[in-house]
Design a protein that fits this description.
The protein is mainly alpha-helical. The chain has eight helices and no strands.
């Protein structure tokens, strides 16, 4: 009985030693893309793109809180990954992101995928472009707050600045 218990315990320890570290490593690369705007960004983008589809959920999450520069870096990573699974994310960003340059970048990636004959997700990219056009025609778009928002509507007083906002203010 003691030998069996030791064998089970050894197996459990061995399984823990082989844990997948990719989630943490993807997060490290995303932190570089969202907090920096220097020479570390291109290699971090390449390393993140190497994870492929596995990185897309964490990139999507980071897009919600990153500052404009960080969101642009994350979109570049999605473009390099080139997986059709990112098309709905890009579609959402192209319609609803508050920064026009981010919306334009997301739409440009989708348009490039739609016209690239080597892109396996051309159908998803075409559908995303059609959805973007439909949503814009229906008047959908980003919610703008404060001075950029609807007249007479209060701003989000006390809302925190997005992570990495220092990039737009000349920070690291």
């Amino acid at each position: 009985m003691g030998a069996r218990l030791a064998l089970v315990l050894a197996g459990a320890l061995a399984a823990g030693a082989c844990e997948d570290r990719s989630h943490r490593d993807i997060g490290d690369e995303i932190n570089i893309l969202t907090r920096r705007n220097d020479a570390l960004v291109p290699p971090a983008t390449a390393r993140l793109a190497a994870y492929g589809r596995k990185a897309i959920p964490q990139i999507e999450t980071a897009l919600h809180t990153a500052a404009v520069t960080g969101r642009l870096h994350l979109l570049d990573a999605l473009a390099k990954i080139g997986d059709a699974e990112a098309a709905p994310i890009l579609r959402h960003v192209a319609v609803y992101d508050v920064a026009p340059e981010v919306r334009d970048a997301a739409e440009a990636i989708i348009a490039a995928w739609a016209t690239d004959p080597r892109q396996p997700g051309r159908a998803q990219a075409d559908a995303a472009l059609a959805a973007i056009a439909g949503k814009r025609a229906a008047g959908e778009g980003p919610l703008l707050w404060g001075d950029a928002g609807a007249p007479g509507v209060p701003s989000t007083v006390g809302a925190p600045e997005p992570v990495g906002a220092a990039l737009e203010k000349g920070g690291r």
